[in-house]
Protein 1
Amino acid sequence: MKKTKEDGDLETELQLASCLPDGVHVAKRLARHFSNWYLIVYGYRTNRVLLRTLQCESRLKELLRVHLTLQLASCLPDGVHVAKRLARHFSNWYLIVYGYRINRVLLRTLRCESRLKELLRVHLTVASCRNRDRMDTESIVEISCEDVRNVIADKVGFIIETIIPEKYRVYEGNKKGVLKNPTAMCSGPNGILFIADVIKGVVVSARLHYPVDVSEICTGLKQPMAVLYTEGILYIGDLGLSQLLCMDL
């Protein structure tokens, strides 16, 4: 299958999702380069050893402060670390790509699908589909290989995934029974869903981490039948109380 322009755009967008390390790692990498190499800054070669020489010159001590512009000398990690960081995000969060939520666990679900398992299990091991926060490269190669991509592109139109309760892990915050009878749901901020449970008389928040974090945010309700979130306010329609409640989140 030829690589399309959209495939290229997707790869670029995903790389940008995690192209910058945090400030601590920027500083560490810069310090290592400054120690190991004679870097070119403003047209001059610089190295940590020069600081030792300058310390002997009292009139130059004020010049030893490193300009913030030097941080830009090593702002981007190499390609291997870009892929590793992307793989970690793909394992830990339900990312949005082209308006769809994606996560590594979806590959595990497809691998168990009766009509696809014979096609995918040859190329895709269960270990590569597990959502483990580790920096291995083998699983990246497996889940992104051409054979796997071709099967998904040709055979899969959509994927139905159970996010509550969690199917593949024993997780206290998202175990069987955490919801009894969900009756209404709405989207909240920052990848959070709000769900009303009419049997338990609660409204829960579900953060789209993996596994999904479920926590009760409103209890003591009678029959919550509707939820709506807008501009920082969560509205709850309780049929049993004959009330419209609101929570300032």
Protein 2
Amino acid sequence: MTLLSDSPLERNTGAFVINNIQPDDGLGPYFVSISLSGSNQSFDIVRDTIPRNRNGELEVTYQDLPTGSYIIAIENAIGCEIAVGNPFVIPVNTDVIIPNVFTPNGDGTNETFEIINIPGSGNGTEMLITNRWGKVVFESEDYYFNSEGDNSFWDGGDEPEGVYFYTVEIEGDTFKGWVEIIRGQP
């Protein structure tokens, strides 16, 4: 198995590929069962057929997975397990991820300037956003997100489409850059 990507908390972006499967029983097709353990999220696949890749090897990829430890079992056509791997872990990505565009147009998607992996409320993440002339258009001494939807993310207010500049301080680290508002049609 090969890890393709990790996943930030509360985001399902992990991925792995199950490959190098070499059964010697000749009882295909082969199936995989996967369960996620030790997580507050649910993920189960039961008897998913493992296809062959263009080289004729058994291989299957799973994407958009939450972090956690996965138990993986492979069975042949008559239900006998032919391989059970050690738990496979999709680790948590704790890197701060700052987008460079958001689209506050009322469609419910990408409506705010959401920085991924910042601490919750009360942890002192400071945000300053200015327009291209240096005028402050947004300021917060507690920029945060929580899963209940109560957050302080900038929604663009009444500012027009365009490029804005931010300075954000997160746990002593300062990040500077630009973000573009594209309103478009909802």
Protein 3
Amino acid sequence: MRVVHSCLVTALLLSALFSAEAQTTTGSILGEVTDSSGAGLTGATVRITSPGTGATRQTQTSAGMYQFDGLPPADYVVTLEFPGFRPITRSGIVLPIQGRIKLDFQMEVGEIQNVNAPLPLGVTGGTRVCPFGDALRAKGLPECFQMQMQNDQSDRIHLNALALKLERRFSGRVGFMLGYTLGSVKTWSTGTFGNVPTDAYDKFRDLDFGPSDNDVRHRLTGNLVYQLPFRFNAGAIVTANSGAPYNHTTGQDDNLDFVNNDRPAGVRFNSLRGAPLFLTDLRLTKKLFLDKTRNVEVIWEMFNVFNRANLSDYNGNERAATFRQARSALPPFQGQLGVRLTF
């Protein structure tokens, strides 16, 4: 049996990371799942979904590690679940042709509820009163000292989606895939404030049920692979989706519960929307055969070819000068050159 060794030498022009799989368009997503102490979690469920195709794969971590191989280039959503811990969902993961993405996650314990949260102001006449205030004061502690208990609310997610996919390959030289998803993901208030409700005594208020942080209504993903003459291979991937939601807050502790997650009256959780996303990535490769067992492959890649400003991290604090403005953006145009030697 012949053993094939390969080494990769990568020269970066404008970026600093590249991974490639030999002679295939598929890639990998892998990483480590830990708790707050950094210890690996065994048995955590990791689920990966392609909104463009509706395809879903699932695995469980071993010593904190997980890995998905053979993934076609597309836009992905990764979801993690583990009993007693808050679920994690990360969307907008764009896997390029022959890409390899490492995603590490740190999970936190489940919902934390302060059982000594100040009573509703309507009950106390507008003053701050905590249920165990007298007993705590008698012990020399602050009357509103936080007394926490943990609950797991990981299943309170409502998901609806319609996925369409068109895929075709012509004569072995040209292939394409086009996927579109219309979806809706709703949950109880989460995100920046964890699972802390706006009202500690009414966890499931109607206005606290709204779009999840990854609720992107429209997703479009397309990729094209073309085999050119002289052993040149070209590939392209286009990703577009509508804006993700973010929360509108007053920027102050209106109900005096020590948590600044209050929204204006009548405003639903995650009621605001950011800007849409559009990305185009291109890849060109050329393979040179030195003999029957050795070859050199030259790889040129470009990301965000049109240098579009894809804005993110919108500020929903109405007291801030940057209210409803983006505070960051996804990477601009990047290009990189790689050389792969197989022997």
Protein 4
Amino acid sequence: MDVSQAGAYTLVARVASGGAGGTLHLEADAADLSGAVVVPGTGGWQSWQDVEATVELAAGVQVLRLCADTDGFNLDYLELSAAGTDPADPPVDDPWIELVSPNGGEVLYAGTVVVIEFEANVIDNVEILYSTEPGLYAMVEPSLLGSQPGWERYEWTVPDTPSTACTVVVASYSGYGISDESDGTFEIRTVSDGDGDGMDDDWENATFGDLTHDATTDADEFLAGTDPLIADAEAFMGSPALSCANRASKRRGTSIVSVWLLALALLVESGCRARRARR
């Protein structure tokens, strides 16, 4: 790079580590400029954060090398700016991702279809992963393009990997190093269908209050992740009230519309309970 003026510069490295982290340093002409820069464990291989160091650079063209002293971390990008100044201004439309659901507290059943819902700004290509234990992720969708209709509502067939410590991550596919993960853990359960009607017995009891509802349409709604007590229901995560509460809490700021949606969801939930009581 061509350094216009000698002096102190701030090095910013965007890093992530699902393990214990590691160290890195910046050098020029085999001389260590930064000393060991510690990369902490960030809680996930796509959970990004910045680490910084101050370096002294000479004026003129020079080759800088970023050296990983240990493994155990991912690197997304580097920034160098004159010390005491901010890096280059970000784009006017700042890129971000917000995962709406599943966002923690849900119970999902293996083989059912649920919706991974998220919102994204500027970003037009994401990958989706899920975890059944901290630091261990499996791919759900390697490249989801924003040009696909309804791309922010991805239908996921829940795998038979029972765990109470599950999370979902939606991450930018390239360029930004931005991701969002479930705020809390959710549970994946293997279906237990003792009466052979195509529905999990615990789910059937919780939904209807007994195991006598053997209609094919009820089993279809169980597999589709919809609520058989709501006409023409869309797939949801947990109760309708929980789904809307997740959406409201994940958005930036609280709006009148968000509050209205949450109130409507609570009314729907109350109506469901009343219908269950009358059955």
